[in-house]
Amino acid sequence: MLDGALHLLRQPLALLVILAAALAVGLPGRASAMAALVTAFAAGLWAGARLEPAGWHAGAAALYVTFAGLALALDRRAQAMPGMFALVTASGLAVALGANLTVATWPELAGAGGLACLLLAGSGAAAAGLRRRWPGSGPGRGRGLRAVMARVAGAWLAAIGLLVATLALQGRGV
Amino acid sequence: MIARAGIRRVLLIAALLGAPALACAHDSWLAPREGGPPELLTLELGTGERFPARDSGTPAASVARSGCRAGDGDRRPRLLVPHRAEPAFLELRARLERASGVACWAALKPQSVTLSDDLVARYFAETRPAPELVRRRAAQRAAGVPWRESYRKFMRVELAPAPASEPAAGVLAALRAPQGLGLEIVPLGDARLRAAEPLSFQLLREGQPVAGHWVEWVSERSPLGVWRQTDAQGRLSITLPFGGRWLLRTVLLEAPADDEAPWQSRFATLLVQLP
Fold this sequence. Notes:
The structure holds two protein chains of two kinds.
Chain A: H1 2-9, H2 12-25, H3 31-49, H4 57-74, H5 81-98, H6 106-133, H7 141-168
Chain B: H1 2-18, E1 27-32, E2 41-48, E3 63-70, E4 78-79, E5 81-85, E6 90-94, E7 102-108, E8 111-115, H2 117-127, H3 131-142, E9 147-159, H4 171-175, E10 184-187, E11 198-205, E12 208-209, E13 214-219, E14 226-229, E15 235-239, E16 244-254, E17 263-274
Parallel strand pairs in B: 9-17
Antiparallel strand pairs in B: 1-2, 2-6, 3-4, 3-7, 5-6, 7-9, 8-9, 10-11, 11-12, 11-15, 13-14, 13-16, 16-17
């Protein structure tokens, strides 16, 4: 299990996906909603780990980061619960592909998946905490600033995802 | 006649077991890791001066292509995924069962190196290039041209089916199908590889036979190698004296068109386990 957890920490692409998912998980601010989102993430991760290994996985995970970043930055539907569920489930799948968990042993998968869920829950809670403590938060100025912050974070994620996807898609074959 | 063959075999075994180690060009090879879950195949890609000692690993980003084929009836090539880089090897994994036999391959991206004249002399002694290449290098050296080389590495490994299972006709031959690598050594035939029996291999460059080229067999139990030269069809035959892991290794050198360009080389290895 420790091997799996350490393996995840050495996968920048997977950590990037978790960051994208944390932006979504922190949005509702309610513990029950966050727990449901983390469960959806774990389900996506498990499904991704059962896929057959393929050369396009890292590129797909990186492109997903770009998509998630753009969705968070530009589309309000991504900030509604159904959109967030879709986003975090796909994030779990992308973590499995980005971290090569398709060839992990069961203990490694448990270690990597457990740490991924912990990181997601922790960073999501931190994001929710920041939202609550945001100076001037309320219906007026705070909401506007939060929207700008979400767009800036999403745009950065999209740019980094595009860069990583370019590197990943440079080509590996069987 | 039989007694003479027996004496030659005993002498070969004695020489292999007692010979001093030779330092050699850095080969890379794929070796299986034993244990682990049956549905996962784990290989270690290591590099060293002399098989089986490894002195460095390979970054995952250096792998240009890698794959496996299993003897389980599913003829599709499976992806061999770089999983973890350790100081002495790169761990690669494929999701397949090895009980019915497996063949895997990997090709690394080109790398460049500059060598001193002393190291080039040793390199030549340990790779046996063609005489015209030796003369070309001597001329370069006389003109003060430094050795610059761009090299690529290709490796294969064949894991035999479990002793209890007898592979169906054609299974092993399918595993041994060439993969079109820049340089590869493939076993010939459809029979299990065994010590003390005649074995045949073929050296291929992008699928085409390489004639008149030297290939060395190195055992994990002996530092001394056994050299053979390929025939006109790129084939080699040998009867290896004892079992265990054997590495077949060769380096194909190509002289540059002019002295400004680097030499091109292709390293190829094949690891087999003989019962």
